[in-house]
Design a protein that fits this description.
about 250 residues, mainly alpha, MetI-like fold
Length: about 250
């Protein structure tokens, strides 16, 4: 209820500013923005561009998340590999994803593969760090107990290591999902002609402020939906292993 009251209060402030003399035409009425969302032609256009953004964001997130988990498992399980490649990986990790746009254009061109590749690069690192630290943080007592009970490596991985690392892997993936959406929208504003980011830039340059704010609102709604959906999946997965969210065995 508090959240809805805050939203209603902010909407009222928005409407007062838009109808007053302070906005200078840069802030349209919230009723006008809502009208664009309800207009059938505008709604179909916005929905199509939003679906394109969601598809590429999820595709990049999937590729990057899987790559991050795989790399994190390797670094967590094999110290020799971690020592040999650690400097290279730590050099790549802080690299801004937008800095790869010129390189991506050179090898991939202005294609959807460019968006997927750069988005995957950006969102793989939270999954990598979460997985690596989770594997390295597995209690040695658990592993020694499992070995003492005569469990085979496959059963140890399934019943000891996996339940211990699932919460932190999911936390890294949740962070990566938000990054994937942010990077995808940014890429659409810079190099794409499709997607809600490209639509927002076109609306800004053409002075269609209502369409611009409608696009921004839809990006926020998409991010909210992504987060809520992932939290639901996270709780289901953690409940499956009997661990608290973000907890460790």
């Amino acid at each position: 209820m508090a959240g809805f009251l805050l939203l209603g209060g902010l909407s009222l402030v928005w409407e007062v500013i838009a109808l007053g003399r302070w906005s200078s035409g840069q802030l349209p009425s919230i009723i006008e923005v809502a009208g664009r969302l309800l207009n059938s032609d505008a709604r179909n256009l916005l929905a199509g561009e939003l679906l394109a953004t969601a598809r590429l964001s999820l595709l990049g997130f999937t590729v990057g998340g899987l790559a991050g988990i795989a790399l994190g498992l390797i670094h967590g399980l094999y110290p020799a590999v971690r020592q040999a490649t650690g400097m290279f990986v730590e050099g790549l990790r802080p690299l801004p994803s937008v800095a790869l746009i010129p390189l991506g254009l050179l090898f991939l061109g202005m294609d959807e593969s460019l968006n997927v590749a750069i988005t995957a690069f950006a969102c793989c690192w939270p999954a990598f760090v979460g997985t690596r630290d989770a594997v390295r943080g597995v209690s040695p007592i658990l592993l020694e107990t499992a070995h003492g009970l005569g469990l085979k490596p496959g059963r140890i991985a399934r019943h000891v290591i996996l339940p211990a690392i699932v919460p932190e892997i999911l936390t890294g993936l949740r962070i990566g999902l938000g990054i994937a959406l942010a990077v995808e929208v940014s890429l659409e504003m810079v190099v794409s002609t499709r997607g809600i980011g490209a639509l927002a830039m076109t609306a800004a340059f053409s002075g269609r402020t209502a369409d611009l704010y409608a696009a921004i609102a839809l990006v926020g709604l998409l991010g909210f939906t992504f987060n809520k959906g992932f939290v639901l999946l996270q709780r289901m997965a953690v409940r499956r292993y009997g661990l608290p969210v973000g907890g460790r065995a």
